[in-house]
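batch job 7 of whatever, protein = Hydroxyacid dehydrogenase
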Amino acid sequence: MEKPKVLQILSMYHEQGQIVLREGAEVVRTDRYDIPHLCEVVKGVDGIVLRAPARITREVIDANPNLRVISGAGVGLDNIDVGYATAHGIPVLHAPSVNRVSTAEHAIALMLALGKSVVRLHGEMSRGNFASRSVIPTFEMKGKRAGLIGFGQIAREAAKRLRFGFEMDVIAWVRQEDQEKARIARELGVSLTTRIEDIFESGDYVSVHVPLTEQTRHFIDYRLLASMKPTAYFINTARGAVVNQTDLRAALQEGRLAGAGLDVFEPEPPSPDLPLLSLPNVIVTPHVGGDDRRMQLDHVDDRRPQCHSRAAGRDARIHCQSGSVGEQIGLAHDIRRKT
């Protein structure tokens, strides 16, 4: 039987997923993701698998009337026009659990780097300034308050580590409370609030863990950022556009908060002259929070979980409930099967 043809845009999170994909499909690989280029290379393929910051717009979908499936290689779907794909009968797949632990760890790493002044002290030590230890302050996390924006899988992984590993007081913002969220919060020792101002006004560390939607785009603005403690830190490992970056820069420059750790930007990649990149109280990383290289290839076959696919509502998403490497392998199998 002839293999389906799949357009792969950027790498998957784990190389074994790429191997599985190639075993059952003819793969067309591109590391370019500008829309005109994608409109050309998408022609003649049966499916697409992509990774942010690549985007699948209606123009890309229209360029191939025979497209049968689109798969994001990670958690978010804000880079795919799911509504337009659904209207054209094209299912959209993703891996909701693929990098929850890695992203939670990265958020905590940024908290530690900020509170312990790791980057500043490294810079001073690289210049031979050992005396900087008496000038640049550092703070322990124990007893501090971590405020989480959102209480999904990534936020819960972060809460677990912050509460039990660092003995922090953890509070999480949710739009609505329900019995399931309340139960999980009790198990983790987390307080819930539906008032987002509580997070910004009381948190020593405020960490963002919400998806990008029309409701969350730029919803973290100057009003909220300016209400933070002047000693507090802001962390974003979710999506850059959740925050108004101009407002964040202003709040940082005015000393409304002590600093920020950013792994995501609007747009991506950010312009080299983005002012946030050069602020002395900001630590930046290139959207690597979800990357996970810990598992060895020889563990893949032993830990390959069964992916259970199900349609979820009108958008025809398929959720794979499994671990990081396994989800990538499962997505590769799914996109082969769908094509």
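notes: Residues 295-329 have pLDDT under 50 and may be disordered.
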